[in-house]
UniProtKB/TrEMBL annotation:
GO biological process: Mo-molybdopterin cofactor biosynthetic process
One term of GO molecular function: GTP binding
Originating species: Natronococcus pandeyae
Pfam (any one): MobB
Classification via PANTHER family: MOLYBDOPTERIN-GUANINE DINUCLEOTIDE BIOSYNTHESIS ADAPTER PROTEIN, MOLYBDOPTERIN-GUANINE DINUCLEOTIDE BIOSYNTHESIS ADAPTER PROTEIN-RELATED
Name under which the protein is recorded: Molybdopterin-guanine dinucleotide biosynthesis protein B
Domain Molybdopterin-guanine dinucleotide biosynthesis protein B (MobB): residue ranges: 3-120
């Protein structure tokens, strides 16, 4: 499984670039995404059965609809000895690898040691090495050409830390 990071300052166009890359990479295999979020959000609707399951104390809740399956777990970046953004990312990448994904596009996680594209004028402080492209904005990359050529620069999940 390959991992590609997209990093940059707020409002630099990271999500827009991801929206352009996902279908291009999807033509070559299964694609998953992970987004670093720096504040808590409510991902379920209060009052729904799944929200009530979680509120009652379930560690993980899975909802299965006619067209979607979703999972909500209590384990985020955590407070224990394995806490932090990078351990949480590694756990999720291992899950994706077991599920047979070909590529995971990671938005944020600038300290992760994986190939990454920097979006915007400057490289954010603390960005780990392995920058394979630095672009001014999301339209500066031809997504199809980039997806076709990415394999040579890809890094496997076992060493993404």
């Amino acid at each position: 499984m390959n991992v590609l990071g997209i990093v940059g300052h707020s409002d630099s166009g990271k999500t827009t670039l991801l929206e352009r890359l996902i279908p291009a990479f999807g033509a070559h295999g299964r694609v998953a995404t992970v987004k670093s979020i720096h504040h808590d959000i409510e991902v379920d609707t209060p009052g729904t059965d799944t929200h009530r399951h979680a509120t009652a104390g379930a560690d993980t809740v899975v909802g299965i609809t006619p067209s979607r399956t979703f999972e909500i777990s209590r384990q985020g970046k955590g407070d224990d000895e394995s806490a932090g953004e990078l351990p949480a990312l590694r756990r999720q990448l291992r899950r994706f690898e077991r599920r047979g994904y070909d590529l995971v596009l990671v938005e944020g996680f600038r300290q992760a040691r994986c190939p990454k594209i920097v979006v915007g004028e400057t490289v954010p402080d603390g960005t780990a090495p392995q920058i394979i492209a630095h672009v001014d904005g999301p339209d500066a990359i031809d997504p199809d050409a980039f997806a076709a050529s990415f394999g040579a620069a890809a890094k496997t999940v076992s060493s993404a830390d």
